[in-house]
Design a protein that fits this description.
This protein is mainly β. The chain has no helices and 21 strands. It has a seven-stranded antiparallel beta sheet with strand order 2-3-4-11-6-9-12, with no helix packed on it.
Length: 251
């Protein structure tokens, strides 16, 4: 006699979790020459319920007036990414790293054991607009390092262009974290899927310009969406749009 044992398996399907960060709800600062918008608590904005999203600690949308400058100051054990949109920013640090970054460029600095650096608007009259982003590192106390790269913006039309990643196959600037930063320029009506490069990561999506839809969520200019508990999602552009996806560990 043959006995058959039947096992019942319960399959639990993950439901995508989202947190909406409306541009109008961001914290604001005013230092005269510097006017930042804060997605997370920083500087003049403090909200104990909004400190970080996973390993993403800081996302500042900065306006730096002509002649404005951050004097030399220290950092340690933080991955700092700068993405300019208009104007040009001059950088100098204690590792010997220095350069000028402008639209199309991306800069990464691993502060590691400690670094001193300064940043200044390269123009006395024209403003600079940029995102400055801080990510908690994977390993503490590494040797500080600096890098920057110019990317062809035509290579991100209706597809993801990875600009920062710890995964060498992405042909991007290296970061000391299981993280990826990707930019895209979507044409009106285009749909684009994002698939995580690292298991159990989340994605913080920012609309740089335009309007997009994810499931039933509509995002406009400078709106952010924290996405977790899913391996992929699809974005549809309601108009020509530019987006930044920051994929980071949630723990």
């Amino acid at each position: 006699m043959v006995c058959y044992l039947v096992f019942k398996h319960q399959i639990t399907k993950k439901i995508m979790k989202t947190i909406l960060y409306k541009a109008s709800d961001r914290g604001k600062g005013d230092y005269g020459w510097l006017k930042p918008n804060y997605y997370f608590s920083f500087g003049q904005y403090h909200n104990p319920k909004n400190i970080h999203f996973g390993a993403l600690r800081v996302l500042n949308d900065d306006f730096i007036a002509g002649g404005g400058a951050f004097p030399t100051h220290p950092h340690d054990n933080m991955e700092i990414v700068t993405i300019p949109f208009t104007g040009a920013l001059k950088h100098k640090d204690s590792t010997g790293g220095q350069g000028i970054i402008k639209a199309g460029d991306v800069q990464v600095m691993s502060a590691g054991t400690g670094v001193q650096h300064s940043e200044a608007n390269n123009s006395a009259t024209e403003p600079v607009t940029l995102f400055q982003i801080w990510v908690f590192p994977k390993e503490n106390n590494i040797q500080p390092r600096y890098d920057q790269k110019t990317f062809d913006v035509e290579e991100r039309i209706n597809k993801w262009q990875f600009v920062v990643s710890s995964n060498e196959i992405d042909n991007a600037l290296w970061i000391n974290q299981d993280a990826r930063f990707a930019l895209t320029s979507l044409k009106s009506g285009a749909a684009l899927n994002y698939t995580n490069g690292f298991k159990d990561n989340g994605v913080f999506l920012v609309v740089i310009s335009g309007t997009v839809k994810i499931n039933d969520i509509i995002l406009g200019k400078r709106d952010g969406l924290g996405i977790s508990e899913t391996d992929s999602f699809t974005i549809t552009a309601s108009e020509d749009s530019e987006l930044l996806a920051i994929e980071i560990p949630m723990n």
